[in-house]
Amino acid sequence: MNTYRFLRYVFYNQAKEEPQLDPIPDFVMLIEDVIKIILKDLDFRDIFSALLVNREWCRAAVPFYWKAPFNFTRKRSMAALKTYEVYLEQGSNNDTTYELWTTP
Hints:
mainly alpha, elongated, F-box domain-containing protein, 2 domains, 68% helix, F-box-like_dom_sf
Protein backbone atom coordinates (compact mmCIF):
# COMPACT_ATOMS: atom_id res chain seq x y z
CA MET A 1 0.00 0.00 0.00
CA ASN A 2 1.54 3.30 -0.97
CA THR A 3 1.76 6.26 1.38
CA TYR A 4 -1.06 8.23 -0.23
CA ARG A 5 -3.51 5.33 0.02
CA PHE A 6 -2.50 4.66 3.61
CA LEU A 7 -3.07 8.28 4.66
CA ARG A 8 -6.35 8.45 2.77
CA TYR A 9 -7.50 5.25 4.47
CA VAL A 10 -6.54 6.52 7.95
CA PHE A 11 -8.18 9.93 7.61
CA TYR A 12 -11.27 8.61 5.79
CA ASN A 13 -11.93 5.97 8.44
CA GLN A 14 -11.41 8.46 11.25
CA ALA A 15 -14.01 10.75 9.69
CA LYS A 16 -16.62 7.94 9.78
CA GLU A 17 -16.15 7.23 13.46
CA GLU A 18 -18.05 9.03 16.14
CA PRO A 19 -16.10 11.64 18.09
CA GLN A 20 -14.38 10.30 21.18
CA LEU A 21 -14.52 11.92 24.59
CA ASP A 22 -10.78 12.52 24.51
CA PRO A 23 -9.95 12.87 20.81
CA ILE A 24 -6.42 12.10 19.71
CA PRO A 25 -5.05 14.57 17.14
CA ASP A 26 -4.53 13.15 13.66
CA PHE A 27 -0.78 13.72 13.70
CA VAL A 28 -0.37 11.40 16.68
CA MET A 29 -1.60 8.55 14.51
CA LEU A 30 1.33 9.01 12.14
CA ILE A 31 4.44 7.51 13.55
CA GLU A 32 7.81 9.06 12.84
CA ASP A 33 8.79 6.30 10.41
CA VAL A 34 5.77 6.99 8.23
CA ILE A 35 6.55 10.71 8.26
CA LYS A 36 10.13 9.96 7.19
CA ILE A 37 8.86 7.80 4.32
CA ILE A 38 6.71 10.71 3.19
CA LEU A 39 9.55 13.22 3.50
CA LYS A 40 11.96 11.01 1.60
CA ASP A 41 10.01 11.60 -1.62
CA LEU A 42 9.48 15.35 -1.24
CA ASP A 43 11.49 18.14 -2.82
CA PHE A 44 13.31 20.79 -0.82
CA ARG A 45 10.49 23.36 -0.68
CA ASP A 46 7.97 20.77 0.45
CA ILE A 47 10.32 19.64 3.21
CA PHE A 48 10.48 23.26 4.38
CA SER A 49 6.67 23.31 4.50
CA ALA A 50 6.72 20.07 6.49
CA LEU A 51 8.87 21.83 9.10
CA LEU A 52 5.94 24.14 9.76
CA VAL A 53 3.23 21.49 10.21
CA ASN A 54 3.83 20.70 13.88
CA ARG A 55 6.54 19.62 16.29
CA GLU A 56 6.60 15.95 15.25
CA TRP A 57 6.82 16.76 11.55
CA CYS A 58 9.52 19.32 12.33
CA ARG A 59 11.59 16.77 14.25
CA ALA A 60 11.33 14.33 11.37
CA ALA A 61 11.99 16.93 8.64
CA VAL A 62 15.04 18.67 10.11
CA PRO A 63 17.54 15.92 9.15
CA PHE A 64 16.21 15.92 5.57
CA TYR A 65 16.31 19.69 5.42
CA TRP A 66 19.91 19.95 6.60
CA LYS A 67 21.23 17.26 4.26
CA ALA A 68 21.48 20.05 1.67
CA PRO A 69 21.40 23.35 3.60
CA PHE A 70 22.29 25.48 0.59
CA ASN A 71 19.42 24.43 -1.65
CA PHE A 72 17.81 27.78 -0.93
CA THR A 73 17.53 30.38 -3.61
CA ARG A 74 20.87 31.99 -4.40
CA LYS A 75 20.02 35.08 -2.33
CA ARG A 76 19.18 33.03 0.78
CA SER A 77 22.27 30.84 0.34
CA MET A 78 24.45 33.94 0.38
CA ALA A 79 22.67 35.20 3.51
CA ALA A 80 23.28 31.86 5.22
CA LEU A 81 26.97 31.95 4.29
CA LYS A 82 27.29 35.47 5.70
CA THR A 83 25.69 34.30 8.95
CA TYR A 84 28.16 31.42 9.21
CA GLU A 85 31.02 33.80 8.51
CA VAL A 86 29.95 36.20 11.28
CA TYR A 87 29.70 33.44 13.88
CA LEU A 88 32.95 31.82 12.81
CA GLU A 89 34.76 35.15 13.13
CA GLN A 90 33.30 35.68 16.60
CA GLY A 91 34.32 32.20 17.68
CA SER A 92 37.75 32.23 16.03
CA ASN A 93 39.43 32.75 19.42
CA ASN A 94 37.74 29.62 20.69
CA ASP A 95 39.90 26.45 20.55
CA THR A 96 36.93 24.17 19.85
CA THR A 97 36.05 26.15 16.72
CA TYR A 98 39.64 25.77 15.52
CA GLU A 99 39.58 22.04 16.24
CA LEU A 100 36.27 21.68 14.45
CA TRP A 101 37.64 23.15 11.24
CA THR A 102 41.08 21.52 11.37
CA THR A 103 40.01 17.98 12.25
CA PRO A 104 39.56 15.84 9.09
